[in-house]
Structure to design on (293 residues):
């Protein structure tokens, strides 16, 4: 009989090392994570209505019941109010992993990613200034999108509050620097947290999702043709489309060292805005890079 509950979820934060952690944990034979990372369920109304049986059929057909089943889905912190409620209903004893990054760096990285994808054309300082306006901030907090969420998706304290129902000892927060600079120690901590033995792997020396630009823009242009979309969706089953698109995206990205520059006034404004987040990150640093609550 197949399991019908997840054992753990990596909820984010977006642009804080979740792809790297996903790849590291997939190397452990006692853990099952679906090959693709971004396949969402608990934050997506349409998919959620299909039911948890659909979810496990699509993503966990190949999983052994004896393994720890998990998902790496930053959307569960991006849309934490609805995701946390649904995860609570799904499994009150679930374990949550939350990677945190300097929130200013995270916002810049998200902006850079959206520039790469061609969904953002605004100048970063003007855009962030606009997002600081009260109406824009409230709108983004209540209804975040790819391009209005640069500031609010770094408000970690709101996410922690939404997941305050998690049982004692089941909520792990970790600084992304600890994961990237002390990878083996960090994965040992996470493995122990999940109740599995640590497994070393050469993958832990690799880097993933480094900011970049498209190698071939024509591939993105092809996606816009409705006829090709219809053929693609009609011929290839959903579960395989996800995997192909994920790995195509990885392959079609090359490193770009050009970083958008925030002016000093905007940096100071952001640091004040993220006062609670920096306090939380300082707490993690004080405790050695991570904290289990």
């Amino acid at each position: 009989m197949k399991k019908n509950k997840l054992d753990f979820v990596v909820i984010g934060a977006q642009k804080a090392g979740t792809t790297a952690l996903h790849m590291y944990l997939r190397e452990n034979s006692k853990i099952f994570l679906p090959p693709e990372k971004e396949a969402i369920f608990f934050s997506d109304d349409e998919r959620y209505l299909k039911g948890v049986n659909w979810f496990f059929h699509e993503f966990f057909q190949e999983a052994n019941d004896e393994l720890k089943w998990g998902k790496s889905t930053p959307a569960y912190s991006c849309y934490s109010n609805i995701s946390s409620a649904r995860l609570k209903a799904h499994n009150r004893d679930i374990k949550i992993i939350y990677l945190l990054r300097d929130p200013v760096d995270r916002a810049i990285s998200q902006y850079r990613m959206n520039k790469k994808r061609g969904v953002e054309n605004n100048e970063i300082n003007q855009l962030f200034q606009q997002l600081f306006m009260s109406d824009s901030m409230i709108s983004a907090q209540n209804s975040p999108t790819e391009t209005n969420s640069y500031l609010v998706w770094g408000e970690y304290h709101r996410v922690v509050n939404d997941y305050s129902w998690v049982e004692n000892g089941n909520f792990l927060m970790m600084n992304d620097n600890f994961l990237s600079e002390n990878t083996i120690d960090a994965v040992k901590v996470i493995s122990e947290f999940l109740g599995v033995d640590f497994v070393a792997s050469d993958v832990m020396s690799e880097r993933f999702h480094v900011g970049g630009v498209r190698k071939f823009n024509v591939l993105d242009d092809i996606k816009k043709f409705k006829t090709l979309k219809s053929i693609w969706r009609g011929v290839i089953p959903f579960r395989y489309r996800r995997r192909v698109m994920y790995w195509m995206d990885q392959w079609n990205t090359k490193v770009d060292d050009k970083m958008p520059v925030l002016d000093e006034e905007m940096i100071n404004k952001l640091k004040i805005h993220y006062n609670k987040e920096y306090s939380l990150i300082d707490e993690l640093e004080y405790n050695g890079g991570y904290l289990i609550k």
In short: The chain has 16 helices and eight strands. The chain has a mean pLDDT of 88. Strands lie at 8-12, 31-32, 68-72, 95-100, 171-175, 212-214, 253-255, 290-292.
